Amino acid sequence: MITINDIMETNRMITENKLDVRTITMGISLRDCAHPNIDQFCRNIYDKITKSAEFLVKTGEDIENEYGIPIIHKRVSVTPIAIAAEACKTDTYVPVAEALDKAAHEVGINFIGGFSALVEKGYTNGDRILIKSIPQALATTDIVCSSVNLGSTKAGINMDCVREMGEIIKRTAELTRDNEAIGCAKLVVFSNAPGDNPFMAGAFHGVSEAEKVVSVGVSGPGVVKHALEGLKSADFTEVAETIKRTAFKITRVGQLVAKEASKRLGVPFGIIDLSLAPTPAVGDSVAHIIEEMGIESCGAPGTTAALALLNDAVKKGGLMASSHVGGLSGAFIPVSEDAGMINAVERGSLSLEKLEAMTCVCSVGLDMIAVEGNVSASTISAIIADEAAIGMINNKTTAVRIIPVPGKKVGDSVNFGGLLGRCPIVPVRNKYNSTAFIARGGRIPAPIRSLTN
Amino acid sequence: MKLVVTIVGKDRVGIIAMVSNILAENNVNILNINQNIMEGFFNMVMIVEMTDSKIKLQELQNILKEKGNEISLDIKVQHQDIFNVMHDV
Q1: Which residues of A touch B44 (CB under 8 A)?
Q2: What is the mean pLDDT of residues A15-41?
Q3: Which residues does chain B have within 8 Å of residue A68's beta carbon, measured at their own beta carbons?
Q4: What's the rounded Cα separation, in Å, for the pair A392 and A151?
Q5: What distances in angstroms separate CA A289 from CA A16, A281, A306, B17, one per listed residue?
Q6: Number of C-beta neighbours around residue A325 at 10 A
Q7: How close does chain B come to A66, measured CA to CA in Å?
Q8: Closest CA to A451 of A155, A158, A159, A192
Q9: What total of structural domains would you count in chain A?
Q10: Is A17 a domain residue?
């Protein structure tokens, strides 16, 4: 029997501590849409997406109202377009991105993900066309998200693609320069990308997924921070226990929402992604949890340990609350989307290098980091290579979503709006170049830990 | 379907009467009421059953929200399951 205190606690989490379900994401396979004629292919995917997701937004809003829990985004992820569109006789997939954008607007969702290629071991012709289409595709669409997986523990790192993605990111920034290089905020480069991630910009409907699935990404950094506020002098055992209990409660709500959405939409339940996803709103910050643990400003020594504890406790607590866990599942540290991270960069306590260290112990990677527009393509590639190596060796997902904003210098800041937030330009302190390293190309062989059989 | 109705706002005469009337008019049965006044603020949590009701949950939410707004009360109506999943294993 629930008590009045339970009811008050839940409602306080929602109203004061910003508890929400970050996203309901419907994954849709587009494998049956293939057609040699790109116009026909675009019609096929438009029809399939608009038919499959017709009631997604309405269902999300109904659940939101009935249970009184905000569901911030409704999204769709699709089969990587490099695979789905590969049969098209064409040299550009920009029209496909436009068809995705149109379908997404038609059903009223916030983002559509899957303008993607999986090239960790090598390129197919479709992969090449897709990657070359990314800058134009992101410049001419609003809510299409793109991702490229270029490394994995099993396959190693495709260094040709690492080199190419540095250039693609620069080009995307250039084509969207009038809009704070926003194209780059919708483009993420992965190592070990999961095929069931509901979060953007990296969501795509993996090739081993069912025809359609509904997955849910939870959130709730504010709730965790609030729980820790009462534990000023507690030791780490108690801190970890408190985070676990809180994560359990948050995830149970996510599971409820996922089950309801699955039932009402008649689409199987996929996974819950146990991630602490911050928003730029005050009181919804992962950095503030770290600071609540006793770090004066996020990025100071001790930050990596604090984040490791947080990330691990969230998983342990959330795991028991959901029947299927997947996706990225870990604390996110996107700079522009987290008020505490933004403050820490402005104070000078959080650097790109420290963020790299932090990505070793949490999901996902160097995320939503704006840098000066004159950072070279090869430096961006080298940053990607470092992150991909961390993912490959540690058997985890890592990612880079970096935004080289044309014309901006350290001291400036950029505003992406909405959930994407605002970012002070983060300095790339090391001015030495890695051009010769990136120019080598080829593949970094799969690590010894790939040989598990 | 069991619902939780939470009412928060400045205390005044007739809050319980008003809410109970709306519930009765719509054939929603009250199972439990917990109410107190904290520093002049009215706090009430009701558990109600609306299985036999003539109206839909969202309509009830709208009626109560509107009536609440008229006298500066925040009235929320939520499906009980969100509390059950969070606090009952």
Answers
A1: none
A2: 95
A3: 76-79, 82
A4: 7
A5: 15, 14, 9, 44
A6: 18
A7: 6
A8: A155
A9: 2
A10: no
> Whole-angstrom Cα distance, residue A172 to residue A188?
12
pLDDT in tens, A54-78: 999 999 999 999 999 999 999 999 9
- Residue A384: CATH number of its domain: 3.20.70.20
Find the residue in A nearest to B45 (Cα): A4
A89 and A232 in a single domain? The answer is no
Residue of chain B with shortest Cα separation from A320? B89
Q: Which of A5, A13, A66 to mutate to test the interface with B (most CBs of B within 10 A)?
A: A66
Asked if residue A449 belongs to a domain, the reply is no
Domain that holds residue A61: 23-191
- Chain A: give the shortest CA distance to residue B13, in Å: 23
The SS3 assignment for A326 reads coil
Q: Is A67 touching B (CB cutoff 8 A)?
A: yes
Give the residue from chain A lying closest to B81, CA to CA. Answer: A67
Q: Is residue A341 part of a domain?
A: yes
Residues A132 and A237 grouped into a single domain: no
Per-residue model confidence (pLDDT) at position A363: 82
Site from B82, B84, B88 to mutate, A interface, most A CB atoms within 10 angstroms: B82
Rounded Cα gap, residues A185 and A197, in angstroms:
17
Report ipTM for this prediction: 0.88
* Whole-structure pTM value: 0.94
Q: How many residues are there in chain B?
A: 89
Judge whether A10 and A70 are in contact, CB under 8 Å.
Answer: no
Cβ-Cβ contacts under 8 Å, A1 against chain B: 88
- Mean pLDDT, residues A131-145: 98
In chain A, which residues have their Cβ closer than 8 Å to the Cβ of B4?
7
- Considering CB atoms only, which of A2, A4, A7 is closest to B88? A2
- Cβ distance A69 to B82 less than 8 Å, yes or no, reads yes
Inter-chain residue contact B83 with A10, CB threshold 8 Å: yes
Residue A122 lies in a domain: yes
Do A280 and A182 fall into the same domain? Answer: no
- Name, in order, each residue with C-beta under 8 angstroms of B31's C-beta and a sequence gap of 6 or more: B2, B46, B47, B48, B49
Q: How near does any CA of chain A get to the CA of B61, in Å?
A: 9
List, for chain B, all residue ranges whose pLDDT scores fall below the cut of 70.
none
Which domains, ranges and CATH numbers included, belong to chain B? 2-87 (3.30.70.260)
List the beta strands (DSSP E) in A175-247.
Answer: 187-191, 212-218
- Taking CA atoms, A369 is separated from A99, A180, A214, A333, A422, in Å, by 29, 12, 29, 10, 10
